[in-house]
Amino acid sequence: MQKRVMSIMLGFAALLAVFLLLFNLPEKEEVAQDSHPIVVPDTPVDIASAESIYKSNCMACHGDEFQGAMGPALKQVGAEMSKERIYKQIVNGGGGMPGYEGRLTEEEIVNLTNWLGSFK
Ligand code: HEC
After folding, report:
1. What is the CATH number of domain 47-117?
2. Could you tell me the distance, in angstroms and rounded to a whole number, from the CA of residue 75 to the centre of ligand 1?
3. In this structure, how many other beta carbons lie within 10 angstroms of the beta carbon of residue 11?
4. Among the four 26, 53, 75, 99, which has the fewest Cβ within 10 Å?
5. Which pLDDT does position 1 carry in this prediction?
6. How far apart are CA 1 and CA 10, in angstroms?
7. Could you tell me which residue ranges the Cytochrome c domain spans (predicted)?
8. Which residue minimizes the CA distance to atom 26 of ligand 1?
């Protein structure tokens, strides 16, 4: 009898955990994204790393000379866009571009952003 009560309670706890995971976490993330303006830290650019990530993830759409292809040219992107907007575009994608959140590390995205931000 006591075992049954215990397993029912465990079942409820598990359900609650699933609920919290499914419904609470995304909401919190959204709030964090919307209410905190992004500030891209000014870390020194690791050019070798940025180039190699660019080659394997971005070049197909933005061109080997940043001249653009399916995606827009990036030659002057640092003059046209703030680093915050570049960062957001890489993280979220949009307009035909995939988002790289979870596919590249935060460090890699910040490095790419600072690298592209210097294209003026
Ligand atoms: C599947 C093709 C594709 C891939 C892969 C891709 N992009 Fe894009 N990218 C696009 C398109 C299309 C746009 C235009 C989006 C829009 O106009 O809303 C874009 C826009 C951008 C912009 C904004 C430029 C502007 O002038 O609006 C930046 C910065 C950018 N991409 C960087 C990257 C980086 C860095 C990577 C690799 C990590 C990457 N992209 C991978 C297709 C791609």
Report:
1. 1.10.760.10
2. 12
3. 10
4. 26
5. 63
6. 14
7. 45-120
8. 72
**Helix, coil or strand: residue 104:** strand
Whose C-alpha lies nearest to ligand 1, atom 8? Answer: 97
Q: Which pTM does this prediction carry?
A: 0.78
CA–CA separation, 62 vs 55, rounded Å? 10
Q: Separation of 101 CA from ligand 1 center, angstroms?
A: 14
Buried b (16+ CB within 10 A) or exposed e, 22-45: eeeeeeeeeeeeeeeeeebeeeeb
At residue 84, the pLDDT reads 96
pLDDT at position 11: 73
Crossing angle for the helix pair 106-117 and 83-92, to the nearest 10 degrees: 140
Asked if residue 43 lies in contact with residue 110, where contact means CB atoms within 8 angstroms, the answer is yes
Tokens of 80: 């046209």
**pLDDT averaged over 10-residue windows placed end to end, the chain, 120 residues:** 73 65 56 64 97 98 98 98 97 97 97 98
Question: Considering only CA atoms, which of 117, 119, 112, 101 is closest in space to residue 47?
Answer: 112
Beta carbon of 100 within 6 Å of any ligand 1 atom: yes
